[in-house]
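Slide 14.
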Amino acid sequence: LHITPKRISKLGDYRFHREKNTHVITLNANLNVYAFLITYLHEVAHLIAFQQHGFKIAPHGAAWKSSFQQLMQPMLIENIFPAEILKPLQKYMLNPKAASGSDHHLSLALQKYDHQDGSIPLAKIEPEQVFRFRDMTFVKESVRRTRALCRDVESGRRYLVSQIARVQPLREGTSGE
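Slide 15: predicted structure.
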């Protein structure tokens, strides 16, 4: 098990290294305790599925889902997860996806326990409000289900951004227009 610096593209990873005949699980150091536990069990489920089925399984297929559900089942209690996380986690675990971030409700519940840096979910930004995301300044234009159409203030290009993305709200008049 290796704890790594924050990675934007993933929360954790499982790999089998043939040349060393070793299993390696990596987890991001910046995860809150609940996201860490969920991600850890997600990756252990990969290890179990691999040990049971070898290379012939889909990474997030039926074998992985079954292993993940079995590992999580005894954890789905209020002694381990707060009620506000437990309810969306129980629903997510009925048919887990490759990333817990793909479940909007679970992601928002988990974010409440992240280190607070002044960022908020994009869902809390009103249309026409200016915000910073990944060192760029945007204006939120409209909402399309789980994503928002946002315009880069500098280039005018439009992007679809997940409503659960953490952004820094800016005061009016800071858009550069």
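Speaker note: The two ends are 48 Å apart (CA to CA).
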